[in-house]
Structures are given as C-alpha cells and as structure tokens.
C-alpha cells in the first residue's frame, strides 16, 4: 500500500508539473488530462494513506471487535472512524471523475478526427473547463446519492477490501438497489467511450484506405483528414479506456454481487485495489505513447533545450 501511494503521488505529480509548466501542453485535451491526474493524485494522497493508517492502527490495537465475519467494524466504533465517511466519498468521486474525464477525452478526440475543420470552434478551452467542473459536480452528487435517497447507509472501513465502503446501518435489503446506479453510470460512459472510439478508428481506417489506394487522395481529403497527432492521441485514449474498463469491471461485479446478497470478501480486496492501482497507470501510458511527454520528463530532470511542437 505504501509503495502504491508513493507511485500514484509521484507519477501524477510529475504529470501535473509537465502539463502545467509547458506552454505547448495548454490545450483542451491536456486540461482533461490534468483533471484525470488530479483525481488520481487525490487517491494517492488521501485514500491509500488512510488505509495504511487504519491497518497500522489495527495492528497496534488488535483487540477491536468486528462483525459480519470480520468484514467491518461494529456500530460502537463508527464514531472513532468518522473520517472514513469522507474518504469513502472522495474515492467514489475520484472514480466517477476518472470515468467521465476519459469519456470527455474520447469525445474531444473524436471531434478532431470526425470533424477536423470544426475542431477549434467546437472544442474551446472555456467549454472544456466548464465540462470538467460539471463532471466533478455530477460525480460528487452521484457519490452521495445513497445518503440522499436512504438514511440506511453509512461508510465503514471494510476489513475485506481494506477500504472505506458503503454499508447498511440497518438490514434493509432493498436499500442496496440504489448502489446499482454506480455500475450503470460507469458502464454507460465506458460503453459510450468504446463506441466513440470505434467510430473514430473507422474514420481513421477510411482515410488510410483512401491514402493507400487513391492517387488523388491529397486533393480529395487534403485539409479535411485528421492529423497524425490527433490519430495518435485517439489511440492513447483508447488504451486509457481499455485499461480503466479492465480495472473497473471487478468492482462493478462486486457491487452487483453485494446487491444480490453475496459477500465475496477476498474478491473485494482484489477488486478495490486493482481499481486503485489504475491511478498510477496513466503516467506510464503517457510515457510510452507521447513523445512530448517523454521530452517533458527529460526536461524536468535533465537540462535540455526546449523543443517547439506542433499544437494538436
């Protein structure tokens, strides 16, 4: 857990520094990447360290009683773990923000590919910033939805997942149904992202086919075809989408299983921490896929002359 927290914080801190200090990175696409990095770094600063602190506290004070087959603290310990309510909501908000931001990044690149001539007029910095704020607000409202629609919910540190999870104060089984909003929302956005990616790559394949087989391709599509940087960015976002979908699927299965009445203690641990580990994956993907990002990392640690890149 400690190593994961360091990896998340350091990796996303480097990402934020590179994106914010380089003028060429101040584009709508990068603003979305900054929002994604902020969500990830919050997980590394608050969520993971709280789990580390709690585990240390448990080892020091091993006499704490548990219930539900050792899966959560009993009611009399709730007052001592009030921060868990905030930490659990923060983790949920950051997860929703990550998913919604990936969706917005996918749409932004699809506009650049499907309508390259209208890209600058449709995708503006002001609109992008407004959508980023909107995604954070909606994510917060969605995270507190169980508390709005039912007073049967609280947040407890779960001994199975080693994280703060939603829990029922009373045994009102129907109340769990509201939790289905989470996987529905997430898979709706991830599914939409995959569909948009398919459309984008179909367009890319269409242009590639024309470039290969039509001699007059230059005069025919000319300025209307997407740039190489747009195509590469779309591929990078597709990798981000696939990676997040793979990491989120176990937690969605766990939520559905919980609603159905299953505990899945061991599975919940892997599900939550696979999702958490995704917070340090983005910087790795950027490093592999983005030459400008790699150069920014090199500039950060080694003095090299700046390079003027083509804006995408």
Automatic annotation (TrEMBL):
Query: Per UniProt, what is the membrane topology?
Result: Multi-pass membrane protein
Q: Which UniProt keywords apply?
A: Cell membrane, G-protein coupled receptor, Membrane, Receptor, Transducer, Transmembrane, Transmembrane helix
User: Which positions are tagged coiled coil?
Assistant: none
Record's Gene Ontology CC terms? plasma membrane
What molecular functions are annotated in GO for this chain? trace-amine receptor activity
In which domain of life is the source organism classified?
Answer: Eukaryota
Domain called G-protein coupled receptors family 1 profile: residue spans = 11-286
Q: What CDD domains is this protein classified in?
A: 7tm_classA_rhodopsin-like (cd00637)
Q: Which Pfam families match?
A: 7tm_1 (PF00001)
Predominant cellular place of this UniProt entry's protein: membrane
Localization (cell): Cell membrane
Transmembrane stretches, start-end:
6-22, 34-53, 86-107, 128-149, 180-204, 237-261, 267-288
As for family, the record states: Belongs to the G-protein coupled receptor 1 family.
Identification of the protein by name: G-protein coupled receptors family 1 profile domain-containing protein
Q: What is the scientific name of the source organism?
A: Pleurodeles waltl (Iberian ribbed newt)
Q: What is the lineage of its organism?
A: Eukaryota, Metazoa, Chordata, Craniata, Vertebrata
């Amino acid at each position: 857990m400690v190593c994961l927290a360091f990896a998340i914080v350091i990796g996303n801190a480097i990402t934020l520094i590179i994106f914010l200090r380089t003028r060429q990175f101040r584009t709508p696409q990068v603003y979305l990447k900054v929002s994604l990095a902020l969500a990830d770094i919050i997980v590394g600063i608050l969520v993971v360290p709280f789990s580390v602190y709690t585990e240390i506290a448990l080892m020091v004070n091993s006499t704490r009683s548990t219930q539900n087959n050792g899966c959560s603290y009993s009611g009399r310990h709730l007052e001592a773990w009030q921060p868990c309510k905030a930490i659990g909501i923060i983790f949920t908000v950051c997860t929703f923000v990550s998913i919604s931001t990936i969706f917005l990044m996918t749409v932004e690149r699809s506009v650049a590919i499907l309508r390259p001539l209208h890209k600058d007029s449709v995708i503006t910095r002001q609109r992008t910033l407004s959508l980023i704020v909107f995604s954070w607000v909606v994510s917060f409202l969605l995270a507190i939805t169980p508390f709005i629609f039912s007073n049967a919910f609280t947040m407890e540190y779960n001994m199975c997942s080693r994280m703060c999870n939603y829990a029922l104060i009373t045994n009102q089984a129907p109340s769990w149904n509201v939790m289905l909003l989470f996987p529905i929302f997430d898979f709706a956005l991830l599914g939409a992202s995959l569909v948009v990616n398919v459309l984008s790559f179909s367009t890319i394949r269409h242009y590639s086919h024309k470039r290969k087989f039509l001699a007059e391709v230059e005069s025919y599509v000319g300025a209307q075809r997407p740039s190489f940087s747009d195509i590469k960015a779309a591929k990078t976002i597709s990798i981000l989408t696939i990676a997040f979908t793979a990491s989120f699927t176990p937690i969605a299965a766990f939520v559905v299983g919980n609603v159905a009445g299953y505990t899945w203690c061991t599975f919940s641990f892997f599900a939550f921490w696979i999702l958490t580990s995704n917070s340090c994956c983005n910087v790795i993907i950027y490093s592999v896929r983005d030459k400008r990002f790699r150069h920014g990392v090199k500039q950060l640690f080694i003095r090299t002359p700046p390079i003027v890149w083509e804006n995408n």
